[in-house]
Amino acid sequence: MNKKFLSAILFGALMVSSTGTFVSCKDYDDDIDRIDNTLNDLKSQIAALQTEVANGNWVTSVTPTEGGFTVVFKDGKTYTIVNGKDGEKGDKGEDGKGTEVAVKDGYWYIDGEKTDYLAVTSEDLKEVKVPYINEEDGYWYFYNDKGEAEKSPYKATGAAYAVNDGGVFTLYMPDANGVMQTIKLPTAASAISSIEFLDNDYQAIKDLNEITLFYWDAAATTEWKGPRGNISNNITTYSTDLSGNNNVLYTRIAPSSVDASELAFSLIDTKDNVASIALAAKKYDGMLTRAAENGLYDITVVPGSYADGGDANKLANQFLSSGANKAMALKPATANYRSLFNVKVIPDKQTTAPLTNINLNGNYVTIVGVDKTTGVAYQTKVGQEVVVSVTKECNLYDMYLSASEEDKALFGIIFSEDGRSFKATKSPDNVTDATIDLEVYTLPNIGGNSNIKKTTIRVEINRTLGEATYDKQTKQPNKTNYSFLVSADKLKASLSSDLNAWYASVKTDVNVLQNIYDDEACTVISDLGTNGGATTNMNNKQVAVTMNVDNDNQVTPANIATKLNYLKFQLDINKTVKPLKIGKTYYAKLSFVDKTSNIELNYVVVPFELTKPELNTILVKESGVFRDGKDLAQAYMYWGDATTKVTGKSYYQSNYYIDRAFTDMQKKLSDAKMVTSPTFAIDDANNVLDAEGKDTGKKASYFASIVNPVPSSTNRAHVSLKEDTDGNGSRDVAGYKKDLNVKFTGAYLDVTGDDSWKYAKTYQFRVMSPILEGEAVAANNVVEVSATGRTKLYKENIWAKTYNNDVKYDIFAKGKAAGVIEWYRSDIANVTFSTGNKNVFEVTVATPTVPVAATATAPAVDSYIEVEGVTENTAKLKVAVDDIWGYTLNSSVDIKTTLNTGK
């Protein structure tokens, strides 16, 4: 196991870092002033740390301070914990040295001089054998060449020290009596409880993950002056090609509160051998928002070099067993938790390492080794960072930049520490635009002095009148050719005293958009397909920006000084090919140029984000259909929608029209410019449930289909129940009263080229008949009739109600037309009555009579049925109501036969 020790007293308090180096505690004295909390006694100090741990906090750093340590937790809380008893400062070494102790060539070095103490075991050169304090005699013990611990001359009695093992710091602190007290402090690495690999869309678990590791038997160099230094003899260099989606471990790490981007990662095999490559995590920054909070990371190999001892395949062999690729697991370098063993590293030995082109801020300038000092110079501005890269980054060992001393002084040129970027911090004067010769030095992974290349590039540094970054503009377009206005006030304020000179110089009749970027620094150009990027044709762009008086009029040279009010953003969103994304922040860099020379005078950056309406504002659920806020539609069929009869039958198809479930559905879809994209479809992702919530074991397509899946005002989408689901030739309509899964998909403004514009939601439709779900009702719950004669019953005696108890309807005849009885409800096809017990009463008129209108000589006769009593008792009067969809409500009411009752 890898262990790291920190001592607050050793050699005047030394610390061992992750590279196996002890550093004097004096280096951290300046940090003491920033400590938030200093606790007085050791007991309270330890208690405070234990409370933080108990509350789920973890340590981000432990650094030595005088007599103890400074502990910083992830939430920024800082504690200083010191000895309860003055620790002895310890005897110095034999020669009085000990300000720095480091591991080199397998041995411990003190102040750069080699000792006799081994820093690694003799069996392998991977795990450092770290010295420790013997609690019995208070001396430090080092390991000899036999791997045995032996006493050193360095005394550390009473010293506070710490061990970092498996991602947990254990602090050893002597109390007032000299008794060593301990406390364990977890780091972020120790908090990790899950590491999963996903596909490159971060959606599905990926079982096999491959990394192709390029490696080179690098030739030594003696003339390289870059940040990584010369390549020594017997060195293997390595890297991975990250172009496209290659060689990236798309990873989900739990808990999501851990920021894995701050951790180093390693690969181990099934025997716990740690591979000699490091990996780093980058927070996923794609369309899935709050990526870090959701634990999503891109983990890649950190390019590096390996001392191979003369065996060019030694690194590659760490990933092979009998010629086959080993199964590897990912783990934090300082903790023990690991992923599954589902990573395969494929070593690929390279014999060449072409770098190809040199790019400045992503733009091609020249071929590596070919100077570009004539023609149009590369344009940059004072204060703008210029990032230098090569096309084949995977083949690059190192790079650094330089310029003449005169140019560096004249323009205040600053080069980054990694040798990959520069910027000019000043102009030689306020008028002159001048050039420098930038020197780009490159060394490929193949190594060798002969492969060191110097490429000189002419760069023109232009003065800057003013710069500004606007607050983000959040807009919801209502059409693809959408425009919005941004106040020009911030632009004008940034020009300050140069504003009038700018008015006189700036070109007005142009699209001032230089480009759309993904980052605030404007270094990564947004990928908007063929319509993205800079172009002279405004109509071929998704975004154009002009200087305007108002929405309709651009400024002119004559009126710009008094009429420049707005920057007008005109969007022409491509519906099908790489449109601007919803929910993504873009950075529009607006460049204003001189009307004569076309040289940039100044620029502003306007961040903007497009949004779309929530789906529930387009598909607005009818509260009477979707109850209790759920996505289950109580889909009662409506007689007015019954237009198509079942083939060979007198009843209509069981159809529910989806627009009856949503308020003004077609209008709202039209308002959202969703014409071709909205679609309703059967969703077979899950089984269908019945009305009691039981799993039917069937998919929705077994029970129903969607007719007119793309809705319109003339072709209304509807759920159509299958008449014969089992295919035996007889009607079963098994989909009736089942919770059928129907998925809506669509794209706002019909922009289908990116998922961010799309909607997708599954609803359940429980298709039912309002008649079948009702019941018959008797006045006062029972109807009394004569036990000895015939009695007519009218609508005042018996009626029915639908599924809604408040909806009462008559089940007696309304009239007759064309020989067909008319009913009070249009969804009734027929009503018949029958006795439930012939020994109590008979039904002598089973079908309600047609009412007769009053005449001059006779009164009106209402619709009625007739029953004849047989004996005095109570029995059921059966009521059968046939609806127009072929369903029959079989209900009943109580009939009580009594003497001397009748009508």
Describe this structure in words.
The chain has 903 residues and is mainly beta. It contains nine helices and 65 strands. The chain is elongated, with a radius of gyration of 41 Å.
What is this entry, summarized?
The chain is mainly beta and 903 residues long. Helix content is 6%, strand content 39%.
Mean pLDDT: 84
Radius of gyration: 41 Å
Q: How many angstroms separate the termini?
A: 101 Å
Helix content: under 10%
Q: Which term fits the overall shape?
A: elongated
In this structure, how is the largest beta sheet organized?
A: 6 strands, antiparallel
Kindly estimate the percentage of residues that lie in beta strands according to DSSP: 35-45%
In terms of structural class, how would the helical and strand content be classed?
A: mainly beta
SSE map:
Elements: E1 3-7, E2 14-16, E3 22-24, E4 37-38, H1 42-54, E5 59-65, E6 68-73, E7 78-82, E8 100-104, E9 107-110, E10 113-118, E11 132-133, E12 139-143, E13 149-155, E14 161-165, E15 168-174, E16 180-186, H2 188-191, E17 194-197, E18 209-218, E19 235-239, E20 249-254, E21 264-268, E22 279-283, E23 296-301, E24 304-307, H3 314-317, E25 320-321, E26 324-325, E27 329-332, E28 343-349, E29 357-360, E30 363-367, E31 378-381, E32 386-390, E33 396-402, H4 405-411, E34 413-415, E35 421-424, E36 434-444, E37 453-462, E38 467-469, E39 473-475, E40 483-487, H5 489-495, H6 499-505, E41 513-517, E42 543-548, H7 560-563, E43 566-571, E44 585-593, E45 600-610, E46 632-636, E47 655-657, H8 665-671, E48 679-682, E49 689-690, H9 700-703, E50 704-707, E51 718-721, E52 738-747, E53 758-768, E54 775-778, E55 782-786, E56 790-793, E57 798-801, E58 808-809, E59 813-817, E60 820-823, E61 828-835, E62 841-845, E63 865-869, E64 874-883, E65 888-898
Parallel strand pairs: 4-7, 18-28, 31-37, 38-45, 39-45, 46-53, 55-65
Antiparallel strand pairs: 1-14, 2-3, 3-8, 5-6, 6-7, 8-9, 9-10, 11-12, 12-13, 14-15, 15-16, 17-20, 18-19, 19-24, 20-23, 21-22, 21-27, 22-23, 25-26, 29-30, 29-32, 32-35, 33-36, 34-35, 36-37, 40-43, 41-44, 42-43, 44-45, 47-51, 48-52, 49-52, 50-51, 52-53, 54-57, 56-63, 57-58, 59-60, 61-64, 62-63, ...
